[in-house]
Amino acid sequence: MQVFPITINSALRLALTVVGLAFAALLLTASPAMAHGDTPHTPWHNDHAEPSATWTAEGDEYVVDLTFPHPGTAAYSYTDTYDACRSGCSRLHRATDIMTDKMVPIHATVDGEICWAPGIDEPMPSYGYMISLCGDDGFKYVFVHLNNDTPGTDDGLGGPENAYAPGIEQGVRVERGQHIGWVGDSGNAEGTAPHNHFEIHEAHSGDVRINPYNSLLAAEARGDFPESITPLEDDGGPEGGGSGEGDHSNPLGPDDLPDPESPGEGAEAPEPRPETDQPDTDEEEDTLAPQATGRLAGPTRVETAVALSQATRRPGTSRAVVIVPSDSHVEALVAAPLAGMLDAPVLLSGTGGLPVAVRDEVDRLDVRNAYIIGSEALLSSQTEADLAAAGVANIARIGATDRYALSAAVAQELLSYGGDIDDVILALGDAEEASRAWPDALSASALAAQTGAPILLTDGTGLSDAVVDVLAVVGADQVTVVGGTAAISDALSGEAAAAAGASVRRLGGATRYSTSVAVAEAAVDAGLDAGRVWVATGLNYPDALAAGPAAASSSSPLVLVDGDGLPGSPASQIWLARHAEEVVVVGGESAVTGAVQAELIR
Question: Which residue in 157, 253, 300, 549 has the most C-beta neighbors within 10 A?
């Protein structure tokens, strides 16, 4: 089992202290083990020349003379996330992730020799297919997460012939600009958007690395791109691209046509993966439509979450899963945008390990990667053991000292995947009256899963240091405050906007139900279908913990109703009557009574 550390990206380079950088560098040197975003030690030929490079104006980074690793006709984007914190700053992200489509060609950046290309005569390593190019200039160039799928699928069965270009293996000489491989999402990048994790190493300093970002910018500026080749056909992954300040992108596709809809990685949830076990027909959609005007429920909250997963996901189609505690609402709600980005279901577990129903669902989905959200007090180490026993290869845990820090940690994890985050959601995370601590965040969970906006929590009186810190580095244009002024005051909203350097949008009303309707309207504006709506009770949270990401995966907003009597939620009743043609009730009759269901579908 490979346990890949979480990627907590709390303050990027400007927020790291000198001591923190030195400590992280020490840990990186001391621990060569491969983790997500970090390559293993690879062989180096010491007879190469010393590196030849120029210093930037800042005097702390090289600009290396290289050819851009992808054709200029490909759609791509990348941002400067070098030195971003990973695993609580126990290590740093020493690379540039170039987001682009699967099967986009990778080309040699310089003349040199392939000094590492694993997985040809042995199984693919846990970090995926990769190439190390020992350049004649003395630098080592590393390309990680090459393709491992049959073109046009996400089946993980492509083999090295769909990762490496013909003739590419260890010891082979290559020329600058030569085609050497294909972009993918192999290894511990399964479940993320396809990308080229690109590193530059200083050969004369062992594993000491330099930031590739400025070298890539320089290659772009002088038009130093490899000659385009015809990429292998593939439609099995999210598109690359992206735009925005600090996000360097090429909006041209293979036909040199603008692609303005191409999303930045992490900006919104990846598109659903295509089927791998059934033929693709014009009659089938990428996601299962929920049963019209029906109910999705199980005997317990755990089995209700499983029912939601089964209703929205076919067997063998989810590479990732998000595991949250069954006895706490915080972890599930703040995890919603992460689940949306990974196109992963949210499943519940207790302190004693995975329930049988959850283990069976993990097996049905053929899950390879898992996030555990929450501390070991809520989800014990038995959870990891059970996931590993179920065949999950890569397992990460995100935990924190309190719910506010946890919401910030999940936001940092979203940041670490690259791309722009245009919006952050601020919602109440605690209240003197416990029943007020969760409804607004629950209403926002489908919106967050759809847009990728982190859900940050407040107690209504102020912002925690962790939340302020992450607001400062997200770079969002907008803070969306969910709830009325009785929950989050205008002054507190302004404080959050000032920390983020962003504008404020409030989605709120006098009651939890009017707030839910305002959020549903925003979710429809973000692309969800007002005619097909999921509803959950606004009186208690257990059955609805996993509802937001599941609703978003079926293109549906989530609306809260009074589960004991629809007239108790007039705002929701009126909105549903005006818009909904199909309604899916989440939870058993103890959550939403049969009478309410009958009234909803009347």
Answer: 549
In a domain, 16, yes or no: no
CB burial of 190-221 (b: ≥16 within 10 Å; e: otherwise) equals bbbbbbbbbbbbbbeeebebbbbbbbbbbbee
How far is it, in rounded angstroms, from Cα 108 to Cα 106? 7
Do 509 and 575 sit in the same domain of this protein? Answer: yes
| Residue 137 domain flag | yes
**pLDDT per residue as tens digits for the range 290-304:** 334 589 999 999 999
Cβ pair 495, 461 in contact under 8 A? no
Q: Taking a C-beta distance cutoff of 8 angstroms, is the pair 459, 404 a contact? A: yes
Residue spans of alpha helices (H) in 145-239: 213-221
- pLDDT, tens digit, 9 for 90 and up, residues 101-116: 999 999 999 999 999 8
What's the whole-number mean pLDDT along residues 533-549? 94
User: Considering the domain boundaries, does residue 398 fall inside one?
Assistant: yes
pLDDT for 154 equals 85
The helices-and-strands tally (H runs, E runs) of the chain is: 15, 27
Give yes or no: residues 306 and 242 share one domain: no
Looking at residue 187, what is its pLDDT? Answer: 86
Phi and psi angles of residue 442, each rounded to the nearest 5 degrees, phi first: -65, -45
The β-bridge partners of 455 are 425
In 3D space, the residue among 513, 512, 511 whose CA is nearest the CA of residue 574 turns out to be: 513
